[in-house]
Amino acid sequence: MATTTRRRGRFHDLTITSVRHLTDDSIEVTFAVPDELVDDAAIVGDVDHVRQQIKLWEAAGVTMMVIGARSPEQIAELATLL
């Protein structure tokens, strides 16, 4: 029988920053997202920081990244990091 491992989700305490009533049965809730949580899900920063984080993510087993850029020039610059 094959052994499988299952990754469990993690929960984070978030602070509610606003609640807006949209209709009688719906609301919009905005949360403050701590930097540590963003760092767990995205790489944001200058070129040196991004380069360092890519190495850490690769060492942790990440095999695919979704990359967003604002221009073709930025895509070319990001390509040098991979």
**Helicity range of the residues?**
25-40%
Rounded Rg: 18 Å
Q: Strand order of the main beta sheet, please?
A: 1-2
Report on the biggest sheet: 2 strands, antiparallel
Describe the structure.
- It is a single chain.
- The chain is an alpha+beta fold.
- It is 34% helix and 20% strand.
- It has three helices and two strands; from the N terminus they run E-E-H-H-H.
- The longest helix is centred in the middle third of the chain and has 13 residues, at 47-59.
- The model has no long low-confidence stretch (mean pLDDT 86).
Topology:
Elements: E1 15-23, E2 26-32, H1 35-41, H2 47-59, H3 72-79
List descriptors:
82 residues; alpha+beta; 2 strands
In short:
With 82 residues, the protein is an alpha+beta fold. The protein has helices spanning 35-41, 47-59, 72-79; strands at 15-23, 26-32.
